[in-house]
Amino acid sequence: MNLSDSQTGGPLPRRVSAMEAVLTHLREAIERGDYAVGDKLPSEAELCRRLEVSRPVLREALRALQTMGLTASRTGKGTFVISSGPVEDPTFGDYAASDLLEVRHHIEIPVAGYAALRRSAEDLDHLSHLLERMERETDTTAWVAMDTLFHLAVAQAARNPVFRRVIEEIRDALARQSAFLNELGGRREQSNREHRAIVEALADGSEHDAVEAMTHHLERVETTLTSIVRPATADDRTTAPTEGGQQA
């Protein structure tokens, strides 16, 4: 079974990464009961052989399974199934997704407003150059690193060191969440557009627009996270309207 070059089903198939294909395969196997709660997954070497993927790809998929709360890794023993369905509140590093989102709504939204009022020409230049690099970047790891730098730069532009310290504290969790959303939710291009709207609002000096742009950005993050952890059922897809035919 070669999952290195896969597509989603449907009339308009979407090419997915090897990691996403492996994750989907293993997640569905767990949810079907092929691997029951308490079972140990095959070794990395065996899974790589069966699925015809590299070890780095497999390890990314296994980390995503753990983030979803489906498996747990036990040092020296392997990976074990601990749930037949994903948790509704995955964990990124030391923090649950719901805690991260709550803090981000209370910190980053007002920070964007302050940044619009207090940013310097140097801040705008730095953010613009960073955004241009992000829009050209195709490597997920490099993009994720710049994503966290972007949010730190907005906090820096607010001219309050406490705000930046808070973002620094959750920086690792933000990077893990960003990687998760980009690998499984196709968020990169949309995030770039949302970041562009934030920078434009800061350049205009509009507190209102900056707050609106950051609010929209965080809402889309939450929507995408929910769609990954609790994908729509067939009934949901027939009754719920779509937005441009593309996942947020």
Shape: elongated
**DSSP strand count:** 6
How much β-strand is present in the residues?
5-15%
User: Can you summarize the main beta sheet?
Assistant: 2 strands, antiparallel
List the total number of helices: 11
What is the N-to-C succession of helices and strands?
A: EEHHHEEEEHHHHHHHH
Are there runs of 5+ residues with pLDDT below 50, and where? 7-14, 233-248
Structural class: mainly alpha
Rounded to the nearest angstrom, the distance between the terminal CA atoms is 29 Å
Q: What is the helix content?
A: 55-70%
Mean pLDDT across the residues is 87
**Major β-sheet strand ordering:** 1-2
Radius of gyration: 20 Å
How are the SSEs ordered, and which strands pair?
Layout: E1 6-7, E2 15-16, H1 18-32, H2 44-51, H3 55-67, E3 71-74, E4 78-81, E5 91-92, E6 95-96, H4 97-118, H5 121-136, H6 140-157, H7 161-169, H8 171-185, H9 188-204, H10 207-229, H11 234-239
Antiparallel strand pairs: 1-2, 3-4, 5-6
Helix pairs in contact: 1-3, 4-6, 4-9, 4-10, 5-6, 5-9, 6-7, 6-8, 9-10
